[in-house]
Amino acid sequence: MAVLKTRIVEKNSGAAIEVKTSQRLRIAGKSIVDFVAFNLRDLNERFDQARTKTNQVKIFISTGDILYSKRNNPMLTIVEDTFKEGRHDLQKGMCSRKRFEMVAQGASKRVFAEGVDINPKKPVEIPDHGCWENLSAAVKPWNISPDDVPSPFNIFQCMRIDPETGIMYDTLIRPKDEAHVDFRAEMDCLVAVSACPESGRGSAIRIEVFDS
To answer: Is this structure's pTM higher than 0.85?
Structure first.
């Protein structure tokens, strides 16, 4: 496959890229990537967590599964997934400055399966922006409002969900070496990604677009 586009997205920053029908999109890295998509021909149509889960009757998706829009149209199909240490997330939303502040103040919760607490607590430790701000800035040139950025597909974010209580535990499980998720575009898409700050532990990611 010939590489058509390559972008490096630095930690706690975002980027948006256009992908045409049948082209292959690769998201590669070792830390969490917040991923959203829009129909490039009608930006009001966007990726939907709930439709994606309901249409496939599961909360964990990987190779062979589809990202659906709220209109129940297939947007992207996962054709390769090399993240073997854990699973991707379709439950959580995205971090933001306010979310960090709320957790630090005890107004919101975030717990880790490993029993650690790496949430920023002091004002100096709290990032001044997060994935919501990154994604909002990335899609601004297409005149998409921050309020219209959908809840993301969180690549490489391995959550542990208690089957009885429904409690969502963050984990420290990440790819040991660089992993990637490849998608085949089922429509012309605008995709946007954020290289999550991960409370200071995040790292840069890479986006590649290949010909069909």
So the answer is: yes
